[in-house]
């Protein structure tokens, strides 16, 4: 197995969370398998999540922590995002991070277009894994909500800037999981880390 440069972002805003624990399991297994790892936790990042402006003509300067996130994305071959699903989407601070760092000239080029007329992606050559926790059962999320958050992250965020494929691991009934369930999830995430997946 060829080692990968993997950027792991724990997108949970709390300092202690299931997402953080799983991120640590992934990082530990990936490091032991020889992958080159960079990891950031959303709760450690200091930035204003409010994009504020209606367009891209005026963009406020990036805080140092956001510059670090951009540098880690540029460095990476594979990105792992761990996030809970809250009210059908990602936490507000994580959405703010996405708004602030995926900018023209860094993530996509509005001066060039694809065959579909979309801005040209600038972050190609990378893959991604989303490890998503929720209370919503997987079957209900797929049948009733049509995988809405997965489609948003996979298609409207990662693929839009050229990161693909994005594979998704959905761990549901996450608020009060039994210890055996958490142990099984931990093993599953560690296996992904060891494989650089």
UniProtKB/TrEMBL annotation:
InterPro entries: Flavodoxin_fold, Flavoprotein-like_sf, NAD(P)H_dehydrogenase_qn. Gene3D superfamilies: 3.40.50.360. One of its GO terms (cellular component) is cytosol. The keyword Oxidoreductase applies. One of its GO terms (molecular function) is NAD(P)H dehydrogenase (quinone) activity. Keywords: Oxidoreductase. Residues 4-183 form the Flavodoxin-like fold domain. Belongs to the NAD(P)H dehydrogenase (quinone) family. This is Putative NADPH-quinone reductase. It comes from Yoonia ponticola.
